[in-house]
Amino acid sequence: MEAWLEQLYKKIEGKIEAECKRIGGRIPYWTKDGIYAEDYAVKDIYWWTNGFWPGILWKMYYATGKEEYKRHAQEAEKTLDGALHGFMGLHHDTGFMWLHSAVADYRLTGSEESRVRGLMAANILAGRYNPAGSYIRAWNQECVKEGEDCTGWIIVDSMMNIPLLYWASKELKDPRFYNIAKNHADTIMRTLVREDGSCGHIACLNPDTGELERILTGQGYSNTSSWSRGQSWILYGFALSYRHTGNAAYLETAKRTAHYFISNITLTEYIPLCDFRQPDQPAYLDASAGLCAACGLLEIAEHVEEGEKALYRKHGERIVKAISEVCCNWDPNVDSIVQQCKVDYHGSGNRQTDLIYADYFLVEAVLRLLNKDFLIW
Questions:
Q1: What does the alpha-carbon distance between residue 276 and residue 260 come to, in Å, rounded to a whole number?
Q2: Which active-site residues does the annotation give?
Q3: Cα-Cα-Cα-Cα dihedral sign, residues 30, 299, 114, 12
Q4: Cα distance between residue 132 and residue 282, in whole Å
Q5: Which of 41, 134, 327, 359 could covalently link to 287 via disulfide, CB atoms 3.0 to 4.6 Å apart?
Q6: What is the DSSP letter of 162?
Q7: How far are the Cα atoms of 60, 113, 272, 283, 343 from residue 18, in angstroms, in the given order?
Q8: What is the pTM of this model?
Q9: Cβ neighbours for 231, distance < 8 A, ≥ 6 positions apart
């Protein structure tokens, strides 16, 4: 194993250990003056990123065996019961919230209570399925602007949530969940993935037929542009759907979107722009997109023929190396690791920030490369 990777793992281990002592079982999102302050912890009990800190803790527990990671991950998991039982604020992101908390707990400890949480979350996600249009609806009406109707909306992020349904289908030996996930993936593939491997973010469908009506800008630069984190959701999401279904079309879609991603990041020294089709200025970056894509590239490498593996692994490694060297803060007294992220192109002013899921994907990518990982998806 290359020395840089072992050194990177040691840096991650030191940083997460220090953060764990400060944060414990609280649920952080981003920092304020370098610290996960109280008002930046549990941004909203229903917030979609609330599973990523427990996900980091479970990854580190698996890699190190240290009990404090397990204890704090379970504390965060119990906090999320407020969302699970509150219900009304939940939407399409239950996979992000409970795959990384309850399902990870169940996989590693066999906790029946965690299994039930995961199955409840899967049923909530499955309940958003529209059988007439063959899709899982994005968001709730109160999440969108006044005058907009999101009844027929789907988003690329959903591809990273449907592994919760694949898990539930296997766990219960019930094909309903599998078929919902697969039908939704087919609809995403048909409506949001372009021939050149780029993708849109939000598709508005006719809720009675599933036919595409229009594409919305979402978090990218425009409705015809290429939001890099959306690209990474698609790339990794279809690779995971191939893992769970064996559907060759999903692997081909993952590869096509991966080739598009690779061709763009090589132009920016392996640190992606916020949108691959954004103007030259302002030159927003999004390291979180790169790290998610790196995990997706490593996933693809597990499923392709031997002669192809090096292509995907090599580019995944290069992304991780570039971001770890240029975009990371390794000071153990400061919270968060990955900097130079962007929530969306037009929002949050000119702010480049840290994001908890960027740290999660860094941890996952490095542990994958070191064969210290377990499947959380």
A1: 10
A2: 93, 157
A3: negative
A4: 42
A5: 327
A6: T
A7: 13, 29, 28, 32, 26
A8: 0.97
A9: 198, 199, 257, 260, 261, 276, 289, 293
